[in-house]
Structure formats: C-alpha cells, structure tokens
Write the structure tokens for this entry.
Amino acid sequence: MSQLRKYIPNPTHVLEEDKAQVREDLALDVGPVRVLDFKVKKLQGKNIRTTKVLWDGGMQAANWELKEHMKKLYPYMFPGKYNFLGRKFFWLGRM
C-alpha cells in the first residue's frame, strides 16, 4: 500500500465507447475480415487444409480454421486467385 499514489484526472485517460452490436442472447456478430495464411497438415495419412483467418471485432484476433468449413460459410473469401500477405497464388488442379 505504500507504493500507491493519488490519481490525478487526465482527459486523455477517457475510453471511447465501443459500437458493438449485441444480440438478445448476448452474443456478438463477428465475421471474417480476410485470410492471412494457409497450410496443409498431415494427420494419419490425410491432408488437412487450414486457413488463418483474421476476424473483425475490437481484439483483431486471428485463428486457424478448416478451409472446407470456411469455404462453405464464406465463399467470397476464396476466389480463383488468392492474395496472402501481398503475394499472389494461382491454384492449379484440385484443392
């Protein structure tokens, strides 16, 4: 307690209001912003394709998702040519 000091108010310490839309069940509507990266994992002889997705929201969280699942839910994120981190990839054959 001896380390504590009295707080001096400062106008720069004021936090801005978050404009999050909350549904009745107290869940947020969050959608993907863009695909950041992709990789293929081998598991018991199978190739599992995953994509790293940046989600909108205040925290700017990114996580790995199954490519097939994301392609079903958000087909507009997967056009014929991909753009990951400024590099262009053209897919030949089946993915």
Observations:
- The helical segments are 67-73.
- Strands lie at 32-43, 46-55, 62-66, 81-84, 87-90.
